[in-house]
Write a structure and sequence with these properties.
Elements (H helix, E strand, L loop, with lengths): L2 H8 L4 H4 L5 H14 L5 E2 L11 H12 L12 H15 L8 E4 L1 H13 L5 E5 L5 H8 L3 E5 L10 H7 L4 E7 L11 H13 L3 E5 L20 H4 L2 E6 L12 E5 L1 H12 L7 H12 L1 H27 L5 E2 L7 E5 L11 H12 L1 E2 L1 E2 L8 E5 L4 H15 L1
Helix pairs in contact: 4-12, 5-12, 6-7, 6-11, 8-9, 13-15, 14-15
Bound molecules: pyridoxal-5'-phosphate (PLP).
Pyridoxal-5'-phosphate (PLP) binds next to helix 6.
């Protein structure tokens, strides 16, 4: 019995929470930390957060905010300056046309996703989720008592198509959750296909939640695209979940936002007013200022993107040369998604078995794809130094060969 089950056996946990699974990505990181504490020299390739520090100018804005005594409650939807900065930034960067009132400041992308799903779907509804998915999507659906309907995308190299969405819609479909650039695959849905996906949904009055947490991490020649820039008649079916976490290396600050039509936003603000109220006041202020400072923010994001690209360009060919590893070149985010099914047989029956081997023999922790609905795959994060990646590849190569 796992420690978690022991707790549930003695605690009358609510049914909706009992149905949820602990995040498998967090679990893998915890294993790495525990082994390190025991003195093992572990290389952790499970990280879902940038290994960079928050840019100095953003830290300074937060200090300014504190000195201006921005230490009290803000409106639930966020400081007016935050809403305005998001709207102005999207208008300038993407030509998007929405009002500041359609922006809600949230405690990270996670709360944006929770707000959007909880205000729209409930028991009896179906929520479409393309596979592989980010671990939290089906758990939110579990939590609200709705049903996840998974869409297989391997036939199209893990890039969701409008056709696949169309074929998965039933009378009960309420919402589609899309994530591009994608965690865990690193794939990016092209702008024209994304538009067709929203069109297919809008025709049937199905809403689309687009998780754009990795928005700016698209490698050239790919283009950054946001559904917030779709025409109004389509955008009214869309909620964009945005986040500062990955973009500006601010995972611990807990700040993100939703961009959605006024009616949906009103309901999300109502829900949020009874949970966290709003993200930290001076953090909102710092982020508003950061978005206004185009030059410095573009420079900071550009530097991180180039470094991820340098690592990716070294790592993927190295992985492709490994025995029985298959790995496509990621188009965005900072993950390599490795197909290890050629290892399956007598000894290895699941990707968890392969991950276990890498942990025990190569002292390298990677994330098993099963948690993303993709048994047979491993997710390798390159949000770590090139030196770590090179050392890990050496170790894995020795074990596999
Ligand atoms: C796909 C995806 N969406 C959302 C999040 C949530 O990020 P945060 O709540 O830190 O903004 C993450 C974090 O790992 C993610 O990978």
């Amino acid at each position: 019995m796992t420690p978690q089950n022991k707790i549930s056996a003695s605690f009358p946990v609510a049914e909706n929470v009992a149905k949820m699974q602990t995040s498998s990505t967090l679990k893998a990181g915890q294993i790495a930390a525990e082994l390190r504490e025991q003195g093992f020299d572990i290389i952790d390739l499970t990280l879902g957060e940038p290994d960079f520090q928050t840019p100095e100018f953003i830290k300074q804005y937060a200090i300014d905010g504190l000195q201006k005594n921005l230490t009290k409650y803000t409106p639930t939807a966020g400081l007016k300056s935050f809403q305005e900065s998001v709207a102005h930034f999207y208008a300038e960067r993407f030509g998007a046309d929405f009002s500041p009132m359609e922006v809600i400041a949230t405690c990270g992308g996670k709360q944006a996703l929770f707000n959007a799903v909880c205000t729209l779907a409930g028991a009896g509804d179906e929520v479409l989720i393309p596979k592989p998915y980010w671990v939290t999507f089906p758990e939110i659906v579990n939590f609200i008592g709705a049903t996840s309907v998974f869409i297989e995308t391997e036939a199209t190299d893990f890039v969701l198509t409008a056709e696949q969405v169309k074929n998965s819609i039933t009378d009960k479909t309420k919402l589609l959750i899309v994530n591009s650039p994608n965690n865990p695959t690193g794939r990016v849905i092209p702008a024209a296909e994304m538009r067709r996906i929203v069109e297919v949904c809008a025709e049937r009055e199905i809403y689309v939640l687009t998780d754009e947490c990795y928005l700016y991490f698209v490698y050239p020649p790919g283009e950054v695209f946001t559904s917030a820039a779709l025409p109004t008649e389509l955008r009214k079916y869309v909620c964009v979940a945005g986040s500062f976490s990955k973009t500006y290396a601010m995972t611990g600050w807990r700040i993100g936002y939703t961009i959605a039509g006024a009616d949906w936003s009103k309901q999300m603000a109502k829900l949020q007013s009874h949970s966290t109220s709003h993200p930290t006041s001076f953090v909102q202020y710092a982020c508003a200022r950061a978005l206004e400072n185009h030059a410095d923010s573009e420079k900071a994001v550009g530097a991180m993107l180039s470094e991820y690209e340098r690592r990716k360009d070294w790592l993927i060919p190295a992985l492709q040369q490994m025995k029985n590893f298959k790995c496509a070149m990621p188009e965005g985010a900072f993950y390599a998604f490795v197909d290890v099914r050629d290892w399956f047989g007598e000894k290895f029956k699941t990707s968890a078995d392969v991950a276990d081997l890498l942990l025990k023999e190569a002292h390298t922790v990677v994330t098993d794809g099963a948690g993303f609905g993709a048994n047979g795959f491993l997710r390798i994060s390159y949000a770590t130094s090139l030196e770590n990646l090179q050392q890990a590849v050496e170790r894995i190569k020795k074990v596999l060969e």
